[in-house]
Each structure stands twice: as C-alpha cells, then as structure tokens.
Amino acid sequence: MAMWQGAMDNRGFQQGSFSSFQSSSSDEDLMDIPGTAMDFSMRDDVPPLDRELEGNKTYNGGGIGSSNRIMDFLEEPIPGVGTYDDFNTIDWVREKSRDRDRHREITNKSKESTWALIHSVSDAFSGWLLMLLIGLLSGSLAGLIDISAHWMTDLKEGICTGGFWFNHEHCCWNSEHVTFEERDKCPEWNSWSQLIISTDQGAFAYIVNYFMYVLWALLFAFLAVSLVKVFAPYACGSGIPEIKTILSGFIIRGYLGKWTLVIKTITLVLAVSSGLSLGKEGPLVHVACCCGNILCHCFNKYRKNEAKRREVLSAAAAAGVSVAFGAPIGGVLFSLEEVSYYFPLKTLWRSFFAALVAAFTLRSINPFGNSRLVLFYVEFHTPWHLFELVPFIVLGIFGGLWGALFIRTNIAWCRKRKTTQLGKYPVIEVLVVTAITAILAFPNEYTRMSTSELISELFNDCGLLDSSKLCDYENYFNTSKGGELPDRPAGAGVYSAMWQLALTLILKIVITIFTFGMKIPSGLFIPSMAVGAIAGRLLGVGMEQLAYYHHDWGIFNSWCSQGADCITPGLYAMVGAAACLGGVTRMTVSLVVIMFELTGGLEYIVPLMAAAMTSKWVADALGREGIYDAHIRLNGYPFLEAKEEFSHKTLAMDVMKPRRNDPLLTVLTQDSMTVEDVETIISETTYSGFPVVVSRESQRLVGFVLRRDLIISIENARKKQDGVVSTSIIYFTEHSPPMPPYTPPTLKLRNILDLSPFTVTDLTPMEIVVDIFRKLGLRQCLVTHNGRLLGIITKKDVLKHIAQMANQDPDSILFN
After folding, report:
1. C-alpha dihedral sign at 449, 453, 457, 458
2. What segment(s) does the record annotate as region Disordered (predicted)?
3. With CB atoms 3.0 to 4.6 Å apart as the test, which of 167, 271, 477, 763 could cross-link to 520 if both were Cys?
4. Buried b (16+ CB within 10 A) or exposed e, 270-295
5. Contact, 4 vs 706, CB < 8 A?
6. Angle at Cα 530 formed by Cα 525 and Cα 534, nearest 5°?
C-alpha cells in the first residue's frame, strides 16, 4: 500500500525524543493548535455503522463529540496535535469546523458577562483591524521600494552633488540653471565621467559611463543573488506560483516568514536597479502576503487556524496588486481570478478594504512625485474608431503568440536549470545574464532606462510640451487652415526611435526568457507589458502615418479628415501591453480592470477586452497553462487546478492504493495494538496517517488518525502519564477494553481520531472524487466496499492520475 507521503524527510519514530515535532514559535512556522477532546458513545465491539449518537453531538474538527469534554491522560490539550508538518496539505474541513466551534463558544460566553461580550466584539472586529494593518504595511513597503529603486537605477548613470540621496529627476527639480527643453540636464547632476575625468564629451567619457553602468549593474545583481542565497532562498522568483499553492492548502514553512520579507524587500530593489528584464509587481504580491502572514500572529483567531489564515493571505495578495499598479479593484479581481483557491464573500469585502488602505498609503507617500500610484499612469482623450478593432485584435494575436512562445521556452530553460549543472551556480548565472543585459542595453536609450520609464514613454500621448524623440513630428506646432487639428507627419526623431524600439523589442523578448526564474526576485508583469507596449507603439505609429498620408483611402475617409489627429499611438501601446500580459498569465477580467484603472478612461474598455480575449484564445490554442500554472507543475507542487475539467471514465478503485498485487493496507485496530506495535508501524512507514478499523478481520472503518498526532501524543503520554510502557494497549474507543490483572496502564487516544473521514465506494467515478477533492480541499479519501475498508486515495494519487490521463509524467508530482 502506498499512502500519501509528506515531502519532508521522515526520520521514522524514535522513542527518545519528539522535540522535532513540536511547533516552533517563530512567525514562519505554524503555531500550536490545541487538540479537541471528543465524546462519542460506542460499544467496543460494535462497528461504526451501528453506533447510536447520544446527546448534543457536534463535529469539532477531529471527529464527532459532545459538549461534555473528556480528559484522557492530560488535563490540557496536547501542544502540537492538530498542526501540520512542512510540505503537507491542511485539512480544510477540520480547520473550518474548528473555527465554527471557536465562534460558537465565544457567542455562547458573550451572554454570560460584559467582558465576554467585549471579547466577542473584538474578535469580530479583529479581521478588519488586520486588513488595516496589512494595507498600511504593504503600502509603506511598496513606497520604500519604489523610491529606493528609482534612486538606485539613476545611480548607474551618475549622482547628485547637491545631495546624493536625490535621484536624477528630483535633483534637477530645484535647480535654477535648467531649461524646459533640457529639463533633465542641470549642473547639480553629474555623470560618472564628469566626476572621474571632469568631462562628459568624447569617446573616453562614453567608455567611462559605459563601464560604470555595467559595474553598478553587476554589483546590484551580485548583492541581490548573494543575499537570497545566504539568508532567504525562498525570496527568489515572483512568488505567485508558490502563493497559489499555499492558498490551495499546502504548507511551505518559511516562505511567508520575516526573513523572507526582509530579504525580498531589499533584493527586489537591487534586482530592479540592476537593469535586468524583470519587474517588481509580482514580487510585491509576495511581500504583501508575507506582511499578512506575519501580522496574523498578532491575532489568535488567525494564528491558530490555517484556513482562516489563507483568507487573510487572499486579501493580502489583493493589496499587493493594488500597490503594484495603483489598481485596488483590479487587485481584488486578480486575487479572485488568479491566486485564490477559497474566496468567500467576507474575504471579498476585506480584500477590497485592504487594497483600498494599501493604495491610500502609497498615495500618501507619493513615491513618484506626480500624485499617482504608478510611474506610467496616462490619460487619453481621443476617441477610438470601430475600424481600429482590427489592429487591436492583431495586437491580441501577437500577445497570445508571445505568451505561448515565452511559456514554452522559459519552462524549457528552467527545466534545464533544474536538471543540469547550471542550477548549482546561481550566482554565476545571474552575473552572466546581468553582464549581457547591461552591455547590450547601454547603447540604446530605450533599453538603458528602467522598464517602468520605458512603458511610461510608450504609453504617453504626445502633447505640445513633449521633447521625446517619439514626439518629434514635423510642423507639430503649426495649425493648418480652417482651424483643423495639427498635421502629424513623423520627423527624423520618430523614425530613429522606431529603429531603436525594434531592437529593444528583440532584446526584451530574448533576455526575459533567461531572466525569469533566476535566483533573484523577478516579476513578469512589467517585462511582458514592455514587450506588448513596444509592439503596440510601433503599430500605432505605423497606423498614424498611414492615416496621415492616405486619409483618402476608404478605410479612413469616413472618420479621419486631412490633418486630423485620428490615431493615438499611446493607446495602441496600452492595448499591446494588456495583450502580452494576458498571453503570458491568461488573466482576462482583472487584467482589463487593472489597465482601465491605469488610464481612467471607460471608453477604452472595449479595445482592452478585445485584445485580452484574443490573446487568451490564441495562447490557449497553443498551450492550456499560464506561466504560473506551468511553474507550479515544473516544481511539482500539489496544486489541484479548479478551472480544469476531468472528463475520463475511471473509477475510484482504479486510482486507490493498494492496487491488486500490492501489500495490504496498513491500518491500526481500535483496541488491540500496543504502543510498541504502533511505534513499529510508524518507524517502518512514511505515511502521513493511518485508517483505524474494528479489527483486521472485519476491516470495518472506525476513523482516521494522522501520523504527526500519533507521534506527539505517544511522546506526551510517556512523559506525563505514569506507567505507559511499550506493552501498554492503545485504544481509540470510548471505554477501555477489558484487561487481565497486572497489565500496564492503557493509553486512550480517541481525542486525536477523526471519526468522520470522507469515504467513497470503490465504484465512485473519478470525476466525482476529483470534484470532492477540489471543492472540499481534502487530504485523503478512504475507499470502502459494502462498509469494509478497501483502500485510500490521497491528493497525490489524484494529481498523479490526472497527469497520467493527460499523458504527462506522473512522477513529476514531487511534493518538494
């Protein structure tokens, strides 16, 4: 028989010490959840199917019990019982049941005294207070990251002599020697060549600036990868695949801990400043979830319940996207559509509140000095025409093709990194990619600037005061006769910018494939948006010039008169950005809302929707998985996708363990095994739990007991209950079995037994079993035939079966 194995290395059962199983008090570990005692009347020899319930029975997470609690060998609940090992899945049903019991107890006590009533009110308010704290902390950290990254990005090109803490823009704000046309040039801002060789002109000055740019990029990247490798290996990547897995009920200790938060915040600034093709938006979701997890420990309600904690993490993910894009509503929808597994209505309201507070906090900090939450906020005023849906859909097709290409190539490269020697040298890999990126980026002004600034430039709708090359139109400041809008023939600057943007597009497409997945914090939102924005701007300028020079064509003459400002290239850039981001992540609703909140224009929702849906259809036709789902599968995380349909006609008996020629199912009997027998089973197996039956002959099911609970309970009994030895009988029944005289004391472990495990018959279709696992978040399900226990189906078995049916490698479900 093959039960579900935890991915942790189980060292087996040792009688000496079980300290390794006690819950740590650090914020990255699970806290102790007291075990709940049960009272369920059942005669020793009566199978569970024939039992009768007495009194007021309630399901309390461990099984069915009465309000009269029984104490076994301890007056207090056993510390550690009911908690989970690392790399294990939580029991959603048990956790939700515990929370209902806790809430019922508080409600009943609130009627007894004023203090209990105050406690009840504070318990109800604690969720909103926690959301307030998460929003404040997430917004503050996002502001700190934005300001620091902006300053360090400019540090690669020079420094402000008026105050080294000023970035380039702030340095020149207060200067009295700056002109409007050259507002980025002021005597207070010195390039590295000016500081080192006192001149900014000539080939040698260019080489000095080039060298310093590459040197700073390498230094920032080296610091980032070194800090991640030494202090917090979990701080690498975007974090969204792991957060999706954690929200589905999996436990990865330390992933949302304080060290991960500190190192991720520092290294995210370094990684973005290094100029690599990555963004900070995805990692900000991880940072916000770390804030949520740490703050949960201030409230018992969330500290001691894993299911409630995941509701908080869903809201924290919304706050993370809110501060990343300045889109509170988009953040809530992102959490609902993309990352959350369990999202009740209460969580929706609290997510909205957390996202609101986070956005307000970031707005108060005003990191970009423009009273906006993001660097690339834009406003368009020119309406779009129905014909333009054609190029918008073309951008959607490009986004879908780019998304499918990126996912395939990036996953292939990440698999190569995992399976070859390349993965053993993360520092060298990061330095090589950084060096290549910096060397290729410096000569081109559009690759030299930060990706957020590039997107801002591409989104920009050219006005009278713009001095950018993208806005270098001939006769731009002259109005034509008859009061018509300005003519817009492209000037030399626009044509030069088009060539540079085409080279930038090629570099971004190639280098992002190798950058995402390295051992540094790396988001994918911004690089994907940059690729789409470049493609969109190129197409937009092409359409604009076509409309200008051929306004008499049939497709233009009905709505675009000569010299009129008909096409907005910045809008094409925004639609392209949405299309490419949708192609990579497969987001739809949340993506459109995020882009809408970025522009503040309701009239552009239709172009965005058309591009997002086209992108998703094209990408889905070439591969069903988004980038985050692909990385979940690559890493072997036990994530049961709720969006996929299971349509195969297999039965529970085809999937359950043991199979026909396997050894018999390992079970415990309810009242005939000694401590030594149980210790032997624990030491010889690595299963996460064991079914309890009336007897080996009858195989009539009594319940299910977890391995961790068994180990902790036996260790506790040896320490605190006199006379418990290896020959002591362990029983899971209500009353002690009759024992001959002079036998050692028995050990009652009924309080750790789940008396209502989920069961299905052997002929249950697997599509129903898969649905049960998805919707109830089960860890395992027992299989019976005519009331007799036949086998067990674990979450791992279900995932392996789904992989097998999809012609994938079932052993890819690694659980580590």
Report:
1. positive
2. 1-28
3. 271
4. bbbbbbbbbbbbbbbbbbbbbbbbbb
5. no
6. 155
Q: What are 592's two structure tokens?
A: 């459109």
Residue 469 near residue 499 (C-beta atoms within 8 A): no
Helical spans, DSSP H, in 326-344: 328-334
| Cα gap 517→512, rounded to integer Å | 10
Q: Cβ neighbours of residue 217 under 8 Å, at least 6 residues apart?
A: 156, 274, 275, 276, 434, 435, 437, 438
CA distances from 763 to 33, 229, 410, 657 (A): 36, 50, 41, 14
CA 183 – CA 412 distance, rounded (Å): 45
156 contact partners, CB below 8 Å, separation of at least 6 = 212, 213, 216, 217, 273, 275
**Phi and psi at residue 339, to the nearest 5°:** -110, -30
Give the distance from CA 729 to its chain's centroid: 46
- The DSSP symbol for 388 reads G
Asked whether the bond before 344 is cis by omega within 30 degrees of 0, the reply is: no
Are 381 and 595 contacting, i.e. CB atoms less than 8 angstroms apart? no
Closest by Cα among 6, 213, 120 to 686: 6
Query: What is the rounded radius of gyration, in angstroms, for the C-alpha atoms of the chain?
Result: 31
389-392 contacts, C-beta under 8 A, 24 or more apart: 389/606, 389/607, 389/610, 391/539, 391/540, 391/543, 391/572, 392/572, 392/575, 392/607, 392/610, 392/611
> What single-letter amino acid sits at 34?
P
Residues 6+ apart with CB under 8 A from 87: 6, 7, 8, 250, 251, 252, 815, 816
How far is it, in rounded angstroms, from Cα 82 to Cα 713?
11
Alpha carbons 557 and 559: distance in angstroms, whole number: 6
- Measured in degrees and rounded to the nearest 5, phi and psi for residue 182 equal -120, 55
- SS3 for 601? coil
What does the alpha-carbon distance between residue 784 and residue 791 come to, in Å, rounded to a whole number?
7
**DSSP character for 563?**
T
DSSP per-residue string spanning 131-152: HHHHHHHHHHHHHHHHHHHHHH
The helix or strand, by DSSP H or E, that contains position 66, with its residue range, turns out to be: strand 64-66
Nearest CA among 780, 789, 784 for reference residue 764: 784
φ, ψ at 653 (rounded to 5°): -65, -20
Rounded to an integer, what distance in angstroms lies between the CA atom of residue 85 and that of residue 707?
10
How far apart CA 607 and CA 602 sit, in angstroms, is 11
CA angle 329, 596, 334 (to 5 degrees): 40
The set of residues, in sequence order, having a beta carbon less than 8 Å from that of 382 and lying 6+ positions away, is 461, 565, 566, 568, 571
Distance CA 160, CA 167 (A): 7
The two tokens of residue 574 are 């925004």
* Amino acid identity at 101: D
The structure's pTM equals 0.83
Q: What is the mean pLDDT of each run of 10 residues along the chain (816 residues)?
A: 39 39 38 33 35 36 33 54 80 86 88 87 91 95 92 88 80 69 72 84 89 94 94 91 91 92 95 92 93 92 90 94 90 91 88 94 83 71 82 95 95 90 89 95 91 88 73 60 51 87 94 93 93 94 82 70 73 93 92 84 85 94 90 88 80 88 86 88 89 89 90 86 82 81 82 88 91 87 90 89 78 54
Residue 636 backbone class (left: φ over 0; alpha: ψ -120 to 50; beta: rest): left
Helix/strand/coil (H/E/C) assignment for every residue in 723-763 = CCCCCCEEECCCCCCCCCCCCCCCEECHHHCECCCCEEECC
Using DSSP, state whether 5 is helix, strand or coil.
strand
